[in-house]
């Protein structure tokens, strides 16, 4: 977590600087393409990372075969992504959106090549090495973007940030993977090494695929039907809301599956850990959500500047969902640690349905605030379903005690909704 926090601090400083250099419209144009970049990332990764983490051993030939396969997949997907530039322009009908595509295609190639070495480091809990890669990538890419903004078109300068970041992160992660038990991967030709992983990775990929649409449909439709400026504002509000999630959850989520791997056969032990972990996490989430809500004006002023005042009412609504998202975002790692990727896939289907409905209502009414209220409700419904399923199918125990321990979190949500309606 300390390693990840260093990355988040640099990321936050980067956002503060770049928000004062680039306009909401430029951010929105880049964000419009980044939505599809995330989809292509899922296609490249295909659940391979978590599947590698769960392996007990791997020989050099299999390691290199998987690495070679990810290089080829990354190259093919990058070419395909670049070729889709005219279609992205036709879909969004946003000026110059196609100019961002080549830079994102380069990012996609380096992301794919980083999958295997990153999984090898996660497997051995080498979290500081991964954090060093993220820290260096964010620092160098931000510096390069600032310099490029003085030399070339601002849109191209901001779009190039992702390419610089992905390339730097791959080089650092690949270098550190040489210190793992399995060793640094080199391009190999044994592509059949993926066969033993397909059972786990297929369900994981299915979950990621469904989760992508439920978590990115809002950006796609806001960009298409409300324009680049509206997407820039909404994207920044969502990004600010995510910082508590980054600090409280995403920093530790990569560690959950590798650490719990040794308890995979003892669901009573994992359930005990889960109860204590999620209760404490929910209390931290309540504190974080409340602070974001009451300090929204100050946060936007300091972090983004005066040009982003439209972010304030949006982030206040989204702050109500912070506690439930903090806890819910760890659920996938527990499903993975217990080798229940198929159940995780089923949870993803339910979540995608309720999130999609809420997004479509907001887009139909062309009101971002209504869209955000819908997301708050959808996240809470997804929480109830995911943990009911977990206790029923994974821990084989009563879920009542878990929901009782979550009462402070639910009470916070009800109180903040009432506060928002009255004021």
UniProtKB/TrEMBL annotation:
<feature type="transmembrane region" description="Helical">
    <location>
        <begin position="241"/>
        <end position="260"/>
    </location>
</feature>
<feature type="transmembrane region" description="Helical">
    <location>
        <begin position="100"/>
        <end position="122"/>
    </location>
</feature>
<dbReference type="InterPro" id="IPR050833">
    <property type="entry name" value="Poly_Biosynth_Transport"/>
</dbReference>
<feature type="transmembrane region" description="Helical">
    <location>
        <begin position="281"/>
        <end position="305"/>
    </location>
</feature>
<feature type="transmembrane region" description="Helical">
    <location>
        <begin position="134"/>
        <end position="152"/>
    </location>
</feature>
<feature type="transmembrane region" description="Helical">
    <location>
        <begin position="370"/>
        <end position="390"/>
    </location>
</feature>
<feature type="transmembrane region" description="Helical">
    <location>
        <begin position="29"/>
        <end position="53"/>
    </location>
</feature>
<feature type="transmembrane region" description="Helical">
    <location>
        <begin position="5"/>
        <end position="23"/>
    </location>
</feature>
<feature type="transmembrane region" description="Helical">
    <location>
        <begin position="402"/>
        <end position="421"/>
    </location>
</feature>
<keyword id="KW-0812">Transmembrane</keyword>
<keyword id="KW-1003">Cell membrane</keyword>
<feature type="transmembrane region" description="Helical">
    <location>
        <begin position="65"/>
        <end position="94"/>
    </location>
</feature>
<dbReference type="Pfam" id="PF13440">
    <property type="entry name" value="Polysacc_synt_3"/>
</dbReference>
<protein>
    <submittedName>
        <fullName>Oligosaccharide flippase family protein</fullName>
    </submittedName>
</protein>
<feature type="transmembrane region" description="Helical">
    <location>
        <begin position="343"/>
        <end position="364"/>
    </location>
</feature>
<comment type="similarity">
    <text>Belongs to the polysaccharide synthase family.</text>
</comment>
<keyword id="KW-1133">Transmembrane helix</keyword>
<keyword id="KW-0472">Membrane</keyword>
<feature type="transmembrane region" description="Helical">
    <location>
        <begin position="311"/>
        <end position="331"/>
    </location>
</feature>
